[in-house]
């Protein structure tokens, strides 16, 4: 071989070896970068999958909320239904109140009948009712019209009221109320 060719071959081999080392170094660095890139891509892919799962869950939750809202708003009563419901409640309250009032009246009337009256008044002969003394000496004039329920126009108001109380069986209640009123000072 020609010395010049040998020299060129050696120079070429030296240059090729250096390039080869550089190529291998670049390839090794590129491989490491590729591995790092692959790892980063996998991590990003996993994060994207997690975000996609979260987004899917949020979307499903929103869909459920939408369905619940639609269901709730479709069941909202209209004005007629609200009025009917309130009217039913009002009638029930009125019925309950009237039953309570009737029960209270029965109880009050029942307790009034249990008030004991003095025995001597019950067994004694009834005395004639007292009349107001006449204030004028003029003869009494009959009123022009008589009330159809009034038997004796001479009776005063107290006697008429007392008869009504007796007819209704409320003498005990009257006596009880009169006793309570008489015990109050200033009345």
UniProtKB/TrEMBL annotation:
What spans are recorded as compositionally biased (Basic and acidic residues)?
Answer: 135-150
Q: What is this protein called?
A: Uncharacterized protein
Annotated stretches, region: Disordered = 109-150
